[in-house]
Amino acid sequence: MWDNSENDGHAETIMDYVISWCLRVAANDFCSKYKPKLYHYCKFLLFKLLQIEENTDQIVLEEVKVWKQWKRIDLWVEVILINNGQKENHSILIENKYYTLTHDRRDIDGTYKNQLEVYKNIFDDFYAQDNNRKKHYALITCLDNYPDKEKIQKLGYQLYTYSALKDEMANNAGNVEPSESDIFNEFWINW
Prior knowledge:
globular, 7 strands, Trna Endonuclease, Chain: A, domain 1, single chain, disordered N terminus
C-alpha cells in the first residue's frame, strides 16, 4: 500500500477491518479446528490486547463483538470469556494509527483535548454503571518509535507497534509463518 498524500490514504480503515476480523476469528470454533495457525495468531492478538496470558485450558472465549468507528472510536470490542470457571466481561478501546500521531478533538464537555483522552472519556462514560467490566485501552501504530509514548501511557493506554506484534506472533523468530488465510497473510506478513 503506497501513500503519496499527507494523510494516511485510508490505510487506517484497512487496519480497522483486519484487526476487527482477527479479533472475531479468535472466538471462532470452526477456525480452531480447520485453520489452526490463523486461530492461534488471532487468539494471540486478542489475548495480548486483553493483557492476559493465554492458557487454553483455563480460558474459554464465549463471544467477541467488534464495532468499527462507533462514537468516533476506531474499534470498540466487547469480550465475554470464562477464566478458571469464572465469567469475565472485558471491553477494549482500540485507536490505530498508520503513520500519523494523535491529535486534539472536541470532548463531551466541549473542550479540546487529545483524542485518546476524549475517546477514553466516551468509553468510560458508556460503562459507568458496569462495575464488573474490565476495560483496556490500546493504541496500535505502524510507527516503531512513537514520539508520545509517555503521554499515551499516562492516559492509561498500552502502546503496540505493528512490528512488535508481528515479531511476538513469530515468537521473536523473525518471520510469521503463513496462515490459512490470504487476508491475514497479506496484512501481517506481506504488508
